[in-house]
Amino acid sequence: MAEARWRQDQATGLRQLMQARSQRSISLIGGRGRIGKTSLVINLATSLVHRGNRVLVIDEFNSSGNVAARLGMRARQRLGDVLRGDAPLESLVLDAATDLQILPLSVQPSQLARLDADSEARFAQQFADLLADVDFLLVDAAPIHSPDQPSMALATDERLIVLADRAEAITDAYTFIKLLSRDFAKRDFLLLVNRAPDYTAAKQLFERVARVARRHTQADVRLLGFVPEDETLHRANHLLQPLMPAFADAEASHACLQLAEVLERLVPVSLTPPDAFVHRWIECNRAFLPSQQP
């Protein structure tokens, strides 16, 4: 029995070590044109869970079309209550499914910029505790249209830009790459083409954006893959459900599972500790609101 307990303890220790080394933070950014970015966040998250990962989705939006609302859920607390010390961070967490949690984090930049050192440390520690058992942190991030606009996309280790074959979406994708590369020294980007008829069309669209980005920036742009146009996506949205498991046989479901597998295999350029995300998020808000610093 002692040997069995030792083996169990060792397995737990090795698992914790692997988690510490491999925990991923990825922001998904998308532009105008109703390109389906929030639905992709949900379906990538559920696909990662289906493959055995534990996922936390952070929702930067406070609207009727945000991640929580798309799953028929509502936030119980506000982040302001947590920042003031009136509620723990875990009180904001919504359990969407086994191994899938949603964390609504819509906040005014000034609320973060005003945090003193003790409040920031407490918030960062609560966040690190929340992420202790998480394999993937996915962020439905606000788009960046100017160099003085805060976004969680600046705080994650990786950035995934959602692209669609629409003029405004293509323009916005290039704008994101240019701003993040030129003004924030972010060099590595993944692109995901949504609602493409096939891989050839997705590849051609990717090359159009990547060619311009490589010509005018120092960005390294890679194609993650594509999700085909699929009526079941709209049906799942109306039912306030993810594709998995409701429409497991749909083409879009298979595509999302393939994308989840590719994400697992990708080696990120950098991996930082869980609380680093929070500190970077706070600092970028302070940088854009210097007059709000305590």
UniProtKB/TrEMBL annotation:
Asked if the record carries the keyword Transferase, the reply is no
User: GO molecular function, one example?
Assistant: ATP binding
Write out the entry's keywords from A to Z. ATP-binding, Nucleotide-binding
One Gene Ontology cellular component term attached to this UniProt record is:
cytoplasmic side of plasma membrane
Instruction: State the InterPro entries in the record.
Output: Cellulose_synthase_operon_BcsQ, P-loop_NTPase, ParA/MinD_ATPase
Which Gene3D superfamilies does the entry link to?
Answer: P-loop containing nucleotide triphosphate hydrolases (3.40.50.300)
The cross-references to PANTHER family, in alphabetical order and at most eight, read: CELLULOSE BIOSYNTHESIS PROTEIN BCSQ-RELATED (PTHR43384:SF4), SEPTUM SITE-DETERMINING PROTEIN MIND HOMOLOG, CHLOROPLASTIC-RELATED (PTHR43384)
Q: What is this protein called?
A: MinD/ParA family protein
